[in-house]
Design goal:
The protein is mostly helical and 117 residues long. The protein is 22% helix and 3% strand. The chain has one domain. The protein contains two helices and two strands; from the N terminus they run βαβα. It is globular. The two termini are 18 Å apart. The mean pLDDT is 90. This is Alpha-amylase.
Length: 117
């Protein structure tokens, strides 16, 4: 059935972005609910609709919190741990094993008739 969606080649799909993460009162799925977030991103990447965009963010407590920085307001480099996740206030959802594996899956099956846009 027709859902009234944009044609796949014209659609950008995402679970969250820097604005929706910080909109209080919304029931937006973010890194703060990691199990559901990983499942939603996996579904998005497995589904053959649109061009997916994956969030890579930093932790925040208030909506106007900026990225990790030093006392001179210089943004800190992103430290990557042995397990390839980030540290020091960086979330780096794109590095989470479940998400990076689904990106790899999507790239492998693209063009094989299994996944298409």
């Amino acid at each position: 059935p027709e859902w009234g969606l944009l044609p796949s080649e014209d659609a950008v799909v995402f679970i969250d972005n820097h604005d929706t993460q910080r909109t209080s009162g919304n029931n937006i799925l973010t890194y703060k609910d990691p199990k559901l977030y990983k499942m939603a991103v996996a579904f998005m990447l497995a589904w053959s609709y649109g061009f997916p965009r994956i969030m890579s963010s930093f932790a925040f407590q208030k909506s106007d919190t900026g990225p990790p920085h030093d006392n001179k307001q210089n943004i800190l480099s992103v430290p990557v741990k042995e397990d390839q996740t980030c540290d020091s206030g960086w979330v780096c959802e794109h590095r989470w094993r479940q998400i990076s594996n689904m990106v790899r899956f999507r790239n492998i099956v693209r063009g094989n008739g299994l996944l298409y846009n």
